[in-house]
Amino acid sequence: NIKGEMPQPKPKPESTEIPDLKEKSLAQLMKLLTDLDDLKRHEAVRELFVRGEDAKAMVPEIVQLLETQTDGGIIQDLLRALHRIVGPDFGPILKKSIKKLITDPDPQIRLRAVQLASSASFINPNVDVSTELIGLLDRTSKVSDLDLQIATIEVLGTIRAKDAVAPLKNILQNSKNITVREYIIRALGRIAPEDEELASILLNALQDPDRGMRHAAASNITRTKIPAKVLVPALLESLPAKEIDSIFSSQELALIDLGKDA
């Protein structure tokens, strides 16, 4: 050690031995669901599933934990546990929690609702929370809650919420915030690449003075049905004179993606 410096404790290694949880009580398993050790959490999820009907008594506690947790890994495992225990009731239970969090006056708790919706879409893509998120999107645009608005837009794009197309277009038309506009371009590119109006929006965005907007448009425009004879000249025209921080610009990557048509 360098003289004068206190020795730092070594981080505790994560367990590699699979724990035997058969003798654990339900209360002990619930405690393990919020353990920082991934392996312990995974085994607790598995064991709760094995307990079957008995584990259903823990559903209210799991839901309460979901509404208060901020650690992404723990949230994922709590969702897995809930999904395995309640099966088809997973969607209604989760939507009730998200509705509760979305109406909370604390913006950080509303953000937690968006994060919960995003995580749930990976556990069960059939859970439709788009209505709740679109309602939140409308409120955030009115109160200028930028972080929450961007997070909501991103999740709507991730879950490909078709009902969000019109509200997103409306915000795109009225918002002057470049970051919000970039996220909307990306979200619309995921949700509705076949939308004819989106094709026009992306072509216009290729000529936007803001580099981020041009990048977002070029990154999503090859998903549309714009014919190559229109798209290739538009991409070539929007190519930057000099790209400082990347080997290929987004426009060049889009041209590569078009392949022989370019």
**Please, what is the average pLDDT?**
82
The strand count comes to: 0
Largest sheet: none
H and E string: HHHHHHHHHHHHHH
Count of helical regions: 14
N-end to C-end Cα span: 60 Å
The residue fraction in helices comes out at 55-70%
Strand content: under 5%
Please give the radius of gyration in angstroms: 23 Å
Give the overall form.
elongated
Global structural class: mainly alpha
Stretches with pLDDT under 50, minimum 5 residues:
1-7
Oligomer: single chain
Descriptive report:
This protein has 262 residues and is mainly α. It is built from 14 helices and no strands. The N terminus is likely disordered.
Descriptive labels:
elongated, 262 residues, disordered N terminus
Structure at a glance:
This protein has 262 residues and is mainly alpha-helical.
Helix and strand arrangement:
Elements: H1 26-32, H2 38-51, H3 59-66, H4 72-86, H5 90-102, H6 107-123, H7 130-143, H8 146-158, H9 165-174, H10 178-191, H11 196-205, H12 211-220, H13 228-238, H14 250-258
Helix pairs in contact: 1-2, 2-4, 3-4, 4-6, 5-6, 6-8, 7-8, 8-10, 9-10, 10-12, 12-14, 13-14
